[in-house]
TrEMBL record, chain A:
Topology relative to the membrane: Multi-pass membrane protein
Organism: Desertihabitans brevis
Name of the protein in question: DUF1290 domain-containing protein
Pfam families assigned to the protein according to its UniProt record, in alphabetical order: DUF1290
Chain ranges passing through the membrane: 24-44, 56-74, 80-98
Keywords for the protein's UniProt record, in alphabetical order: Cell membrane, Membrane, Transmembrane, Transmembrane helix
Family: Belongs to the sbp family.
Principal localisation: membrane
Cellular localization per UniProt: Cell membrane
GO cellular component: plasma membrane
Length: 110, 258
C-alpha cells in the first residue's frame, strides 16, 4: 500500500516539479524506466505471492536501474550502445511480460 | 537458448523467495520503500515530461529556422530595393555631370543601349511564358527533378532563339546571372527557387517557340521530357513585364584624364 501511495506521490511530484536531468544522463532515462518497470512488476508479483520484502524490492530496484544504465553507458563508450540497449530492453521486456502473466494468473485465476 | 530459458524461468528476483523462506522475522524498512517508490514515480514523470517536451522543441527549432530564412530573404529584398534606389541616384548624378551638349547626349544613348543589354532596365513587351516542373513524385535528378543544367539549357536555347529579355520566377537574367544548384534547390542570382519554374521570355512570340525547338536547348528539353517525365508548357503572351536586374555594378573604372 505504502509503495503504491509513494508511486502516485512521486508521479504527481515529478509532474509538478518537472525535474530536469543533467544532459549527460538523459539518454539513460528510458532504459532506467524500463528497468524500474521490471523491478515494479517483480515486486508486485512477489507481493501477490506473499513473499514481498521491502529490502529486496529496494535493492532490486536500485540495482536494476543502475545496472541497466551502466550497461548502456559502457555500450556507448565502446560503440555498441544502441545494440546493448536493445538487448537490455528485450531481456527486461521478457521478464516484464512473464511477471505480468503471473500477476494476471494470480489475480484472475486465468 | 539456455540464457533465454533462464530469463523465462526466473523473471522475478529470486531473493524474494529466499528471504521470505529464511526463518525469523522478515527485515522491514518501510521508509526506504517509500523513498524508492517516490523516486520511481518521479522517474516515470521525468521520462514522460522529457519525451513530450522533446517533440515540441524540435518543432520550435524548425520554426525558428524557417523564421530566420524568411527574415534573411526579406533583408535580401530590402537590399535589392536599396541597390535599385542607389542605382537611380547614380544615374541622375551621371546625367548631371555629363551636362547637356551633343556629345553628352550621344554618350547617354550609348549608356542606355548598354544598360538594356545588361538587363539594367525593366522590359515590357510580347513574348512567351514557359512553365517547367519536376516530374511528379521525383526525389532526385535521376528520376525527374530539374537541375541547374536544365534551366541553363532552356535559357541558352531561348537566347539563341532570339529572346530579348528573360526572367525566371521573377528574377531578371543579365549576361552575368548564374544559374546554379545549391543543395537540392536551383539558385538564380544566388536565390533559391522552388518549382514550378516560370521562365518569362520577351521576344517575338511567333518565332520563339519554333526557333527554340531547333536550338540545342530545345533538343535537350525534348530528351529530358521524353525520358524523365518532367513537364514543360509554353504559352504566348501579348504583354510581359520583366523587372530590371538590380545587381549591376561597376567593374571597370578609370580616373578621368584632365
Amino acid at each position: 500500500m505504502l509503495a503504491i501511495l509513494g508511486l502516485i506521490l512521486g508521479i504527481v511530484l515529478g509532474l509538478v516539479l518537472e525535474p530536469t536531468l543533467p544532459g549527460a544522463l538523459q539518454p539513460y532515462l528510458p532504459i532506467a524506466i524500463v528497468a524500474a518497470l521490471d523491478a515494479l512488476f517483480g515486486g508486485a508479483r512477489a507481493w501477490l505471492e506473499g513473499t514481498f520484502t521491502d529490502k529486496v524490492f529496494v535493492v532490486s530496484f536500485v540495482s536494476n536501474v543502475l545496472i541497466a544504465a551502466v550497461i548502456v553507458w559502457i555500450g556507448d563508450q565502446i560503440g555498441v550502445g544502441s545494440q546493448l540497449s536493445t538487448g537490455v530492453v528485450v531481456v527486461l521486456g521478457i521478464r516484464i511480460f512473464t511477471n505480468a502473466a503471473a500477476i494476471r494468473r494470480q489475480l484472475f485465476h486465468a | 537458448m539456455d540464457l533465454l530459458n533462464q530469463v523465462l524461468a526466473e523473471p522475478m528476483d529470486p531473493d524474494y523467495r529466499r528471504v521470505s523462506a529464511r526463518p525469523g522475522p522478515v527485515p522491514r524498512s518501510r521508509l526506504l520503500l517509500l523513498v524508492v517508490a517516490i523516486g520511481c514515480g518521479m522517474l516515470f514523470a521525468a521520462g514522460s515530461v522529457q519525451s513530450t517536451r522533446g517533440a515540441p522543441a524540435a518543432a520550435v527549432e524548425r520554426q525558428q529556422l524557417l523564421d530566420r530564412i524568411a527574415a534573411e530573404e526579406q533583408r535580401h529584398d530590402e537590399l535589392h530595393a536599396r541597390i535599385e534606389q542607389t542605382a537611380g541616384e547614380v544615374g541622375a548624378l551621371r546625367d548631371a555631370a555629363l551636362g547637356d551638349d551633343a556629345q553628352a547626349r550621344a554618350l547617354e544613348r550609348e549608356i542606355e543601349a548598354a544598360a538594356e543589354q545588361a538587363a539594367a532596365r525593366p522590359v515590357r513587351g510580347p513574348g512567351v511564358v514557359v512553365v517547367a516542373d519536376d516530374a511528379p513524385g521525383s526525389s532526385g535528378p535521376s528520376d525527374g527533378r530539374l537541375i541547374d543544367l536544365d534551366l541553363q539549357q532552356l535559357v541558352n536555347g531561348m537566347w539563341t532563339a532570339g529572346a530579348e529579355a528573360i526572367a525566371i520566377n521573377g528574377h531578371r537574367l543579365s549576361p552575368l546571372t548564374p544559374i546554379r544548384n545549391a543543395g537540392d534547390a536551383i539558385t538564380v542570382d544566388y536565390r533559391s527557387l522552388s518549382p514550378p519554374y516560370t521562365v518569362e521570355v520577351v521576344g517575338d512570340p511567333r518565332t520563339l517557340p519554333a526557333r527554340f525547338a531547333e536550338s540545342i536547348g530545345g533538343r535537350w528539353w525534348d530528351h529530358v521530357r521524353q525520358n524523365y517525365g518532367v513537364s514543360m508548357t509554353t504559352t504566348s503572351s501579348d504583354e510581359l513585364e520583366l523587372p530590371a536586374d538590380p545587381t549591376l555594378r561597376v567593374r571597370h573604372a578609370r580616373a578621368r584624364e584632365e
